[in-house]
């Protein structure tokens, strides 16, 4: 594993190694020392072409907890916004000797392009409507922590699947890890070739809901309404929103996830979002651990299996 | 260049068939026969290479005026000659747009000055390619450039009424409307063929129906008003079926396919390398197969390159920011050999029809696309189908480098191109 560009590139063993490593790193963090020397002398660049404070802070915290030097290269106010091409920026990062580049970009495939132009490891922190592999990893981590397993877990992913990089990465990763995914959305918000994806599809949330161990709600942007993907926010919410009433019909052990930021009242009601079965806050915490694991494995190198405690403790 | 030099092409296989010598003099084919005497003529040894009538490209982007950083009439017509072409139709989407007699005359003159092939300007259908108001089609037709092909290529004439009027209007001067079939609302922000690959890559899809719906509509319109319609770069199986159906009804429609749509498929986008980004997009293997069959059975009349040069900065970028289009002139014949001849779908006579005679007829280029016969204009391409080469964009005559075939091994090599008896290419080198 040289880069993390797509959740689909991960083998089952690689994915589990990341999750196991994340757990170890999380335990270390809880115990005492907030900072590990693991990546001392390494430079991680956060290259953010899209505003995403949450994701950037999460990566920054992850890198800093392992003592890496972090350079934030945000599009705003830099040469990037003055029309410098991604390739020229890549050559600059290359000259700076970046060991790892975390890239968030509005164009699908931007991370893959970047990986062709730099020697360092590239981590895709969300590229257009393509993928967001660390989000899928932190979601899987969260599910495993809460439910104790991933194999056979029934996961409903509800919302704007068509435009969601989170959905793409989750379908690929959860399939690799043996969970059973059902996508739930109006047909307009599903990709045309969704039948070829390794998952089930339903237009009927109420039918899927009671059978699900995990209900993952995705954000639905209001602009989709203007583009006729659905008639109105009210109708969407009535058919596909996780209301308190629907929440009551979930299995007792089932959890609610959301990658954030949430539109309360649209896809999820406030009381559901704040309930004890919502993992929204843990997802943020777990995000740092998972990103630590990814950076550690990509930049710190040679961990072969679970018996690698030496370096992290 | 002078036309006083005579050339004797020795031992060519005419349309891949009988071996013969061809004597070229005063711009015409003076004699064809075996063992012709050189009698002071320059001898060109064909050594069994295939002789074809000079190729005619009905769909070329020469970029001049406006984007001389990508291509000029001079560099583009040299690339054409290197590809075996003796005539190209230069699309109207320049800057300024070729929507007036002045601009088409300028392009026509630049072509004459360059002298590597005949350059026939295509006139825009609507002012500024905006799809709102007819350009002065008659003025372009009456200009020295004698425009007969009109196209908003790059943009679709999507307004049905405007399309009807354009089809009707050009009847007055035997013109043809070459439609870039792309329903604009169905392709807003579209990046690649809509299907399994676009869904996986998260790139906005370009559904086949956006092309097919316009083709169906235009065929019905052309039939209704009794006009000639030409469909640019057909790319889907459904389009082939619709055109086949329209022809069976008697609609006067012709259609073209590009070399890249005969060979390449949408899964190449997996790399996100925009060298594969093109309009219309690369489609599926099933579409490729239908296009080959359509070209073989005559449903699709011709091969046209849609040669679309772009500077490297327009391609070395994120996919969604990149320009659409790929080079085609210098690889077209090789790709057609690979996909159509070597597969047994076409013989060389069939290639000559589809890459020379019929495109010339559609574009009303009277001295082009003529048979290889005594007294005809000496527009000839000598092609060695036994050669192979690894495509190297850096070695191309085009000013741009955006060839999707870079690094691929393709069959065949253009040995020589003669324009009215004068070699523009000899020994595979531009003259
Ligand atoms: Zn076009």
Number of strands of chain B: 19
Number of domains of chain B: 2
Q: Strand pairing plus helix content of chain A: what structural class?
A: alpha/beta
Structural class of the secondary elements of chain B?
alpha/beta
Query: What's the order of the H and E elements of chain A?
Result: HEHEHEHEHEHEEHEHHHEHHH
Strands of the biggest beta sheet of chain A: in what spatial order?
7-6-5-8-9
**Poorly predicted segments of chain B:** none
What is the CA–CA distance across the termini of chain A?
23 Å
| CATH topological fold name of the largest domain in chain A | Rossmann fold
CATH C-level class of the largest domain in chain A: Alpha Beta
Give the distance, in angstroms, between the N- and C-terminal Cα atoms of chain B: 9 Å
Give the amount of beta strand of chain B, in percent.
15-25%
Report on this structure.
The complex is a heterodimer of chains A (313) and B (431). Helix content of chain A is 42%, strand content 14%. Chain A has a 5-stranded parallel beta sheet. In chain A, strands 2-1-3-4 form a 4-stranded parallel beta sheet, with helices on both faces. Chain A folds into 2 domains: 7-132 and 284-300, 3-Layer(aba) Sandwich (Rossmann fold); 133-279, 3-Layer(aba) Sandwich (Rossmann fold). Chain A has 13 helices and 9 strands. Chain B has 2 domains: 7-50 and 375-430, Urease, subunit C, domain 1 (Roll); 54-363, TIM Barrel (Alpha-Beta Barrel). Chain B has 11 helices and 19 strands. In chain B, helix 1 (73-82) crosses helix 2 and helix 6 packs parallel to helix 7 (237-248). The relative contact order of chain B is 0.16. The mean pLDDT of chain B is 97. Chain A binds chain B through residues 85-87, 105, 107-110, 112-113, 127-131, 165, 168, 191-194, 196-197, and chain B through 191, 194-196, 199-205, 207, 271-273, 313, 316-321. The site of zinc ion has 6 residues of chain B, from loops. Chain A: L-aspartate binds at residues 82, 165, 219. Chain A: GO terms for molecular function: amino acid binding; aspartate carbamoyltransferase activity. Chain A: Heterododecamer (2C3:3R2) of six catalytic PyrB chains organized as two trimers (C3), and six regulatory PyrI chains organized as three dimers (R2). Chain A: Keywords: Pyrimidine biosynthesis, Transferase.
